Give the backbone structure.
Amino acid sequence: MRSPGDELDDLDARHLRRGLRRIDSPQGPRVHIDGRDYLNFSSNDYLGLAADERLKAALIEGVARHGAGSGASRLICGTLGPHDELEQCLAAVKGTAAALTFSSGYAAAVGTLTALAGKGDVVILDKLCHASLIDGARLSGATLRIYPHHDLDRLDSHLCWAVGQVDPATGRILVVTESVFSMDGDRADLAPIVELKERHGAWLLLDEAHAHGVLGPAGRGLAAELGLADGRVDLLMGTLSKAVGLSGGYLCASRPIIDLLINRARSFIYSTAPSPAVAHAARHAIEWIAGPLGDERRRSLWRHVHHLADRLRLPAHSAILPLILGDNATALAAADDLRQHGYLIPAIRYPTVPRGQARLRITLSATHCEADIEHLAGALASRRPPDPAA
Ligand SMILES: *Cc1c(COP(=O)(O)O)cnc(C)c1O
């Protein structure tokens, strides 16, 4: 039998071994590890809601009103009031007829793609799509085509090929992209993608995981920012675990698509419903994100993004700023060095990013302060320690 120890040694030798680090404080711009404080630039809590007093109170209220657990999967006896209210709220914010929530964004991606695509269908993905989308597409049994990151000529040629393969009466062609790419922070060229999929009669699944709450009017995402949220994107996916500050995933679409997912998405059908308290709190968070609190947090977040992007001479596309360093050992050493100086920034390596593109992935939050950003910029320039007085 192949030994797990040998396999781990092999990962070690290639600087690809990962381990868990315990944090002894709530999630936030400052975290406590092993008796020491760190400035945290590793979280996707873009609006600083994860430990926000209002969200904590909403979660506690959710437990008091609706209980802690949901008892069963949604189709058995687990659809409770807060699940229904959250889905109505998501559909209203995203401008679709209906929505369905899942226990995670990963479960939403895998459930949706396996339910809507299968043998005889074609799924076309951007090369840098998130693992959950790739896994869902693979598991679906559909024929996969990958286009190089942002290469819309290749997307077009894949679509032309797919139209010749798929019977339009019985088959489906799905184009899959993220709006903000999770490890590069850049944005999909959405308007021409929508035109292409419409011209070829395909559907588009848009994963707004890193865009909801961050981009667009009222934080409604990239489709809304570009005026494409009026039904032109067939499947709008997202997560409750990033800007929303909780956990869970969702898919917004037409009523028939959502009804089909309720019947076919195995990660929805065969999984116990998320806690009703989380659904209750998530509905509040989604409403706050679309209102004045969200606007205020977004102003602060984007001020930080522009500040750091200017200092690092990087484009300011989103709250994710990658510093690509190349090989695994270099990225690991840089992350270690920054950690010794009090900064928590992850080294992202293969297979999360392509080989030879290991990087520091910096993520910003509305609840960082000006000085945090300035210290980070200084540390990245000279690896200076943060000012303990700040
Ligand atoms: C994080 C992420 C997911 C998965 O969402 P979870 O709620 O964390 O499971 C899906 N897609 C993208 C692009 C992501 O970054």
The chain has two domains: 21-41+293-383, 53-289.
